[in-house]
Amino acid sequence: MKLLEDKILAEGRALSTSILKVDSFINHQVDPDLMNEIGKEFARYFKDCHVTKVLTIESSGIAPSVYTAMHLGVPMIILKKQTSKILNSNVAQTNITSFTKGTSYELTLSLDYVNENDTVLIVDDFLANGEAATGAVRLAQTAGAKIAGIGILIEKSFQKGRQRLIDQGLNVYSLARVARLDEGVIEFVRH
Ligand code: 5GP
What we know:
The protein is of the alpha/beta class. 31% of the residues lie in helices and 32% in strands. The strands form 3 sheets. A 6-stranded mixed sheet has the order 4-3-7-8-9-10, with helices on both faces. It has a two-stranded antiparallel sheet with strand order 1-2.
């Protein structure tokens, strides 16, 4: 998606050969016009997949997911990284290793909101090693839902996440595919 690639080139910062900082429009400050266009594009791509819910991981996946859900006309579900006292016991949980933090955390889905009648689209900001997306898939499958696909804003194509998801038979649609990062260098996979 040219709009997203242009924004990454204008405002993204490669902190190393593996980390891209996009705090000014995705991770800290959010660009709502861009998120709206992203939501429109995911809704266009997955329009025939009978999506009933959009699933995302808090917190950076929420903004693009709200717009995706709005354009698909379905609810959005947030997978929680922190367990809350007000969540009842009807939950599914799975352990995820965080790529950026190097620590692991428990991801929680309330089974009140996803069940075997659902077909979910999973949306997240980054795809690195595929830990977060694979965890989201596991939770949706525990709830009995079908997976329409995975929508990713920024895929780091030099890491193994895409292949890992494709090996599970999943439809992965990434709006920007980064081929290489280095200090001051951001290169995209050629279309
Ligand atoms: P994975 O689970 O695919 O290994 O990593 C994806 C998760 O790690 C995303 O949810 C995202 O929050 C975070 N992440 C991975 N790589 C980057 C990166 O280069 N920049 C930022 N800002 N987050 C990243």
